[in-house]
Amino acid sequence: MLNIKDYRLCALGCPIVQHSMNDMLKNICDRVGIDSNGLNISMYTCRHTVATKLGNTPGMSYPWAASRMGHTVKMFMKTYVHVDEDRNIEMSDLVMNENSY
Q1: What is the DSSP letter of 4?
Q2: What is the pLDDT of residue 62?
């Protein structure tokens, strides 16, 4: 892979490192005007966000999602599948409406 921080090193075949990927991501966020509200945006947080979205997608095959993330199903469920606040409100409304009949 190419080193995106130093094209001289890139020509020598040095690999991309996590730090340079995070720097590139921060630069892109600045260019497009993404305000992180003081939170750290990194390749790890992007990966975690994608995995969490997969884990909270109705009908998602957890074995499929876990294999895409390189995890066992148990690790995937423990790490990425949690209550989605938007979904929590939706489900609470559903329960409240069911009880009103």
Answers
A1: S
A2: 93
